Description:
Layout: H1 3-13, E1 18-19, H2 22-25, E2 46-48, H3 53-66, E3 70-73, E4 90-93, E5 100-104, E6 109-113, H4 118-126, E7 131-132, H5 144-149, H6 157-160, E8 167-173, E9 179-183, H7 195-199, E10 208-215, E11 217-218, E12 222-230, H8 233-246, E13 252-256, H9 258-268, E14 279-287, H10 290-306, E15 309-315, H11 318-335, E16 339-346, H12 352-365, E17 372-375, E18 380-386, H13 396-409, H14 428-431, H15 434-447
Parallel strand pairs: 2-4, 3-4
Antiparallel strand pairs: 1-2, 5-6, 6-10, 7-11, 8-9, 8-10, 12-14, 12-15, 13-14, 13-17, 16-18, 17-18
Helix pairs in contact: 1-3, 8-10, 9-11, 12-13
Protein name: FAD-binding oxidoreductase
Domain FAD-binding PCMH-type: 40-219
Keywords: FAD, Flavoprotein, Oxidoreductase
Amino acid sequence: MKDADVKNLTDIVGADWIITDLEQKSAYFYDEIERALRPVANEQSIVVKPKNTEELSAIMAYAYEQEIPVVIRGGGTGLCGGATPVVESLILSMERFKKIIQIDEDNMMAELEAGVTLRELLDELEGHKGIAFPVHPGDEGAQIGGMVTTNAGGARAVRHGIMRNHIKGLEVVLPDGEVLKLGGRLLKDNAGYSLMNLLTGSEGTLAAITKVILRLYPEDKYSATLAIAFADMDQASAAVLEIIKSGVSPLAVEYQDKKLNLETAAYLGLHWPLDEGEADLMIILSERSEAALYLACEQIEAICRKHQAVKAVYAGTKKEQAELLMIRSGSYEIIQELIAHNLDMAVPPARVPEFMRGLRKLAEKYGTRTNIVAHIADGNVHNDILLEDGKIPAFTPDLLKEMYELCFQLGGTITGEHGVGKLRLADLKLQKNNRELELMKQIKKIFDPKGILNPGTVVQIDGCNKN
Ligand SMILES: Cc1cc2nc3c(=O)[nH]c(=O)nc-3n(C[C@H](O)[C@H](O)[C@H](O)COP(=O)(O)OP(=O)(O)OC[C@H]3O[C@@H](n4cnc5c(N)ncnc54)[C@H](O)[C@@H]3O)c2cc1C
């Protein structure tokens, strides 16, 4: 970065809020993507930390004028390299956008600055009895702005949907520095094209999100977790489809390979209660009354029995429930360093057993195996290609291509929730036709004609590509 640029940016944010030292700034280069998949960060990039929309807007206007790429960084919990600057960039950290502007109990909405983390929002809601925000991607260090631009999902999407379903208003800064307010505390707003929906899931490529208005909901007081083993995946999947059709509305329905459940439990010093059967489900229920919770449990157990469940374990206390959840969410920690490629495909829910069988067969064909973890009721399957002797196997591109082909045959998508980022830039072309890709590029050009925002992410256009 030129000295003049550093000086001009320092004039905007103050010397305490800009980092040029390599050791300090390298903490901002990567997200949580597996080491083997990381795009290479450009080490000339510097970090700038505006404190409010005015400063952020001034930085964007300067970057636009000087054609300096800008990569916005939220909590850095992304899984597809979106927050990594691959060309010399300003890394615009949102960590000072921390205000919870209002928890509006009358309208049941929260207005927040974009750098508030999910944990901070949940802590704030503890003080507002009976009110909850339901979307929960696995890492509570994710910022609300990051969750908006990645359109985060997570286990509770079965009942509550994804981030897009709860966003009511945004304040955004366009690449030329202009500030726009979209939507508001409205439950209905049908005025023109929904730019708010376009920006949701845009992965920091169209605008910076500075404020968010989210819808809130009454809190369920009673919860339980069921761990259920089935003889095979077909039975487990048939039970899931019937549960959803029955009108019982679980908070989450999760699948994880039994091997992973047992290994993670051993690693954490916990006990996984299902040793029988081939396919384990974890179903989380939450209801407003104890009676409704018991009824939902009974209905689910009856459906599972009908589909030859071999064992069902009920966790009622907070401790028992937390331990099961720790086993489900702790598995990533033990496989993260073994992964050559991490997939996030989704297929129609009824095609899940076929899909999982097909993925395992493909792995076998290449002499390897694949770990499978799934938000199964959503049809969202996370699986991997494993390293061999610590290296990415030469067959990785071929196996990946065959896994995608299987996914497309079943009517699926390359990413259900983590996004395209930099990891799936080329893969997107396998799924989308030219006309659709061209429309995406034109939209990018309208918002960001000089291509300064997050180059090399989602779609590639000719633009600002300074090195
Ligand atoms: C253990 C673990 C489990 C996870 N489980 C799930 C899951 O179940 N479901 C799920 O959907 N995700 C999951 N994730 C992924 C991740 O937590 C989400 O994608 C999250 O929404 C990213 O938010 P962030 O603030 O960390 O964004 P970052 O990683 O900082 O950035 C992600 C992208 O958003 C852009 N961005 C960030 N903030 C802004 C802003 N204010 N304005 C404009 N652009 C911005 C960045 O440029 C980047 O392209 C998981 C991650 C981990 C580590």
